[in-house]
Amino acid sequence: MTTILKPSLFSRPAWIGIVFCAVVLALLPIMNLCFPADHALHISSYTIALVGKFMCYAMAALALDLVWGYTGILSLGHGVFFALGGYAHGMYLMRSIGRDGVYQSNLPDFMVFLNWKEYPWYWWMTEHFWFAMLLVVLVPGLLAFIFGYFAFRSRIKGVYFSIITQAMTFAFMLLFFRNDTGFGGNNGFTDFKRILGFTITDPSTKAVLYLVTLAFLLAALFVCRAIVTSKLGRVLQGVRDSESRLMFIGYNPLWFKLFVWTLSAVVCGIAGALYVPQVGIINPSEMSPANSIEMVIWAAVGGRGSLLGPIIGAFTVNGLKSWFTAAFPDLWLYALGLIFIFVTLFMPQGILGLVKKFKKQEAAT
Fold first, then answer.
1. Which end of the chain is more exposed for a tag (fewer CB within 10 A), N or C?
2. Which residues is 189 bridged to in the sheet?
């Protein structure tokens, strides 16, 4: 009797690394709260906010890896899903401000400024946290399902699919820049004050948001791992490697691609929802095509098709971005382009591929 072994994906050292990194990340907000600012073990609030933001980016990169690395669908429009999740949560946060705004109105300040008299219909029920969280999942998921259904049914793939995803995010960005859409126009949503009744700037609230983000990142990693190591994952890789052969043996790639595409959009939307309260703002620039391209670079730098690689890439590239934009603010985009060219030419498997290569060479000697 032949036993089919389930692929493990992560080696034992990788599991040890995941646990170690998770413990270290979980300790950071505790060190922020427990030690005074002048203590050697104190972690600054700035660092907590920065790492929390990086974890949101890592979730977005992970979501992209599921469709690009394992299914071969290169999306240049995941920024729109990230931003829609952020806007859905932002609507709840704006309504939580109450009458504490500049104009002391029940409406957000930007609506008062634009002479709005009441909330538009699509703000209905957004004062409820649970409903806003439902929108975080439903809005990006529904958009991805409708867009993906028509695109995959028409068998649009490759560079054509990438172009229309970028056109989609650009169209949404232009739409949200308009003041008459009821989403704050150019400024978007900001000046958040409370979440579930807690002061959003309080260090303990920030710590909880950080830990929730860490929990979601780990949950997303394990869900993605369960998918790619299952039979479904092997079908997805079949779509990537030879879609025609898959159809020849009786599979319909449409629904497999649609499932993973929609799931990826939902994960990206959740990442955006976690990003907004920690950064304190969401505006249409999050939908810019450049942001979606950056997500692709995170996955490429870390190593696509590995799940861990995009997480490493998101932390690495954004760490460099934080340093570069402080030291050489005008040169970051040039540096980002050079990083992408270097990785494409000399590290096609990214950082993880380089590590594996060194390990093989070490084992051979």
1. N
2. 282
Q: What is the mean pLDDT of the chain?
A: 92
What pLDDT shows up at residue 168?
A: 95
Residue 80 CA to residue 212 CA, distance in Å, equals: 23
Q: Residue 282: in which H helix or E strand, if any?
A: strand 281-282
Distance (Å) of CA 125 to CA 119, 131, 134, 135, 308: 11, 7, 11, 10, 37
Q: Is the distance from CB of 285 to CB of 87 less than 8 angstroms?
A: no
Looking from the CA of 164 toward its CB, the CA atoms found within 13 Å total 14
User: DSSP code of 284?
Assistant: G
Q: Which amino acid belongs to residue 286?
A: E
Rounded CA separation 214/217 (Å)? 5
Using CA atoms in the order 141, 83, 57, 353, what is the torsion angle rounded to 10 degrees?
60
pLDDT tens-digit series, residues 127-153? 999 999 999 999 999 999 999 999 999
Q: Is 199 helix (H, G, I), strand (E, B) or coil?
A: strand
Burial grade of 262 (CB within 10 A; 0-12, 13-18, 19 or more): buried
Model confidence over 187-237: pLDDT tens digits? 999 999 999 999 999 999 999 999 999 999 999 999 999 999 999 999 999
Q: CB of 83 within 8 A of CB of 282?
A: yes
Total residues found in the chain within this entry: 365
For residue 76, give the amino acid letter.
L
Taking residue 254's Cβ as centre, other Cβ atoms within 10 Å add up to 15
- 45-68 helix and 289-302 helix, angle to the nearest 10 degrees: 80
Structure tokens at 77: 């429009």
Angle at 134 between CA 292 and CA 273, to 5 degrees: 40
